[in-house]
Amino acid sequence: MRRLLAHISLAVAVMLTCLGNCYADARIGLQNLKCEMLNNPLGIGTNKPRLSWQIISDVRNTRQIAYQIIVASTPEKLTAGQGDLWDSRKVNSAESIMISYAGKPLVSRAVCYWKVRVWTNNGASAWSQPAKWSVGLLNPADWKARWIGCDRGFAWDSVSKFSRLSARYYRRGFSLNKAIKQATAYIVGLGHYELYVNGQIIGDQVLAEAPTDYTQSVKYNTFDVTGYLKQGGNAIGTVLGNGRYFTMRPKYKPKKIKEFGFPKMLLQLEVEYTDGTKQTIISDNSWHFTADGPIRTNNEYDGEEYDATKEFSGWNTPGFDDSQWLKAELVQAPGGKLGAQMNEPIRVMDTVKPVSISQLKKDVWILDMGQNMAGWIQMRVKGTRGDKVTLRYAETLQPNNELYVANLRDAKVTDVYTLKGGAEETWHPVFVYHGFRYVEISGYPGKPELADFEGQVVYDALPTIGSFETSDAIVNKIYHNAYWGILSNYKGMPVDCPQRNERMPWLGDRAVGSLGESFVFANGNFYAKWLDDIAQSQTLVGAIPDVAPAYWNYYSDNMTWPGTYILVADMLYRQFADKAPIEKHYASMKKWMDYMRVKYMKNNIIIKDKYGDWCVPPESLELIHAKDSSLNTDGQLIATAYYYHLSGLMEKFATMLHKPADAQFFAVIKQAVAKAFNDKYFDQPTSKYSNNTVTANLLPLYFGITPSANKQAVFKNIVAKINEAHDHISTGVIGTQWLMRGLAEFGRPDLAWKIASNTTYPSWGYMAERGATTIWELWNGDTANPAMNSRNHIMLLGDLITWFYQDVAGIKTANAGFKQLVMQPAIIKGLDSVNASYQTAYGLIKSSYTNTKSSFNWHVTVPPNSSALVYVPAKNTDAVTEGGKKVSAIKDIKPVKMENGRAILSIGSGDYDFEVKY
Fold first, then answer.
1. Is 266 within 8 Å of 187 (Cβ atoms)?
2. 3-class SS of residue 141
3. H or E segment at 298?
4. CATH for 3-134, among 2.40.128.590, 2.60.40.10, 3.40.140.10, 3.30.70.1230?
5. How far apart (Å, rounded) are the C-alpha atoms in residues 69 and 116?
6. pTM of the entire structure?
7. d(CA 638, CA 735)
8. pLDDT tens sequence across 132-191
9. Is 274 in a helix, a strand, or coil?
């Protein structure tokens, strides 16, 4: 199932588009609310959407007690209050998100109009402004279109290790002889496409559609093109790029790299006339195409070459003579199941102005964007026909100021533009992207100026829903770097890096990282789609790869990397109250757990691991990986601890899904694994696990394997090891995923803060102090072999961003989706202020505090239909005031108890200003 959100309030609805796989949000105002519509979900891939809304109220402690939803087949019926598709009547419920549609069965192409009203403890709302959604093509029989393409290269192409394949241009003219009521286009363009109707580009998406394993699933996009068509002659045109379909390195390593074939397309344009009749235009062999167009080659690793002298004016408009073009060929379907793309499209989401341009040598210039980013350069240029401008991209420079490209491996990352001459020309590539800060410009006619170039930042259109700022400049810089690193690696799937010849969706990078990202970006749809990719990559016997979609054939049978499948499903439930991924993927997750247990569990210990605690800071700054065994953690320990932890999540999932036998099974296996783990790895006299690395002690402690009587002693060992490292990080990818929250949970947020705010090696601050504007792949990325170091990775972030929001700002959910909050900010010496916010499905949460020698002042915002337990640092409850009054005298605040120097208060929705004087 998918959530539907009718966007009513511009500012907030944009933030919430991600909180489910396409869901609708009708914002309900209790006091003179004027609502504005934004963006209706079009062509959704389900007949059972889930509906959500937000309540707007400036009255404290506003709670919903009932709602009524009406869904109608026409706007007129909705206005009249006729819910011919569904009238829920008044439902006594506090739920305002994820309400499953329960009306008449919906069919393909159905258009639904809906509104909602609510009753609260503070009064009833009026009806919301209307919203709508439409259903896509749900059944194979709905598709009349045929797959078209051309399964060969041309004379100017090269299908080899380093392929050069030009874009294919398709067109068809057609006539519409009646007045048009509605027109909808459904398209799949593999690997990427651009769609034009009567010369106008359709949509603002780029690098469409979402990448998948095309033998398993293929995503189509839906567009309302009514306003682009006219009675009489029309034309539709498409351009097909290579993307992930025609692989970046075909014929390179056949056993490693999955190939799909040459670009192909499926298109169906459905037109409804005002008299009720219909006409359908489909892709078939009546279309014409050419590959001899201006895009001469396009490859995600190597770049795009565009020859403007090859442009054919008006090719996508009516009347163009395509008699010299080739006839489109019917080709075999890619094999995957067709379905609507329910995650957000990729778009140009931001722009970056370059900060400097300097001449390197004659005719060669270096452009500095000032920020490592992923996207492309848009260039303005004026010159002579046939002039060629070459743009080559890199993250860093050599000492002589030339580009450093060794870390890009064999990715050529070069765009070439050939001018048509005459007037000023503006260009950027369309079927590739680059990870870069610096651009080498050669062949530019005249002297290039800063104003001639603009960096366009390209990533999935996920609204930014979190903000975080502190009084510490280096921590703010780290957050900035994390923000840019995260967005750079959203490309329809989470990739590891955006610059070299990899860019693969490694599971291990996002195991816990996805949770931190969910505080920054609305990534619910994005990760729900990725879970589908992972499920589709599972083998018949149950194995899950390290990379999914499985573009690379890496089935290493680890616990850690594939375990991300379960961790992400849990994240979607905790952060967005989205239970559907757990329901959908439970059987596949259980199959994988059974596969690993049967194949690799010996005496309740998992004996298989490949990566260990990847990228531990090595003993020498020149090393990439530590060779000192005292720094590395036993891989079997890691694998077994993960099996225990993941079994606990599966027990929870089984309970949620009313599978008591499964829940009991996972509970029993957990106990057996914990006993075997402690018997093998725990040294009772010293309270140390294995070789006493932080990771070896942290995993059993944080996961709950450690016996209660030994927890504090084990934690002391963790602290001692961190102290030995001069309060610096000593964990790799695995340990860092649990480190910061582990320190906070056992009472040492101050030590976590030291680690977070360090500026010496190894630390995130070390990267920032050395000019990083994103996160490096290696802790010592400036001293180890730089050819191995991506300057834009996020795997070493671990749980840092999660800790920033949950513990430093004190924004944590007590259940699913932040209906009940626990707000307990860490009070850390030297941290004078924190200002954070987070947009949830219920509305905006704020936590903003200052801590001085004389007082603690904390502004809290809780959204309507939510509540919170707030933990205010105070000697007693009477020391806490809100708005200048003692909290005990305020009816909307209920003191609960004192605990560990905190006054615990229960509050409902609203804005609060707490103060404690010292």
1. yes
2. helix
3. strand 295-299
4. 2.60.40.10
5. 4
6. 0.95
7. 9
8. 999 999 999 999 999 999 999 999 999 888 889 999 999 999 999 999 999 999 999 999
9. coil
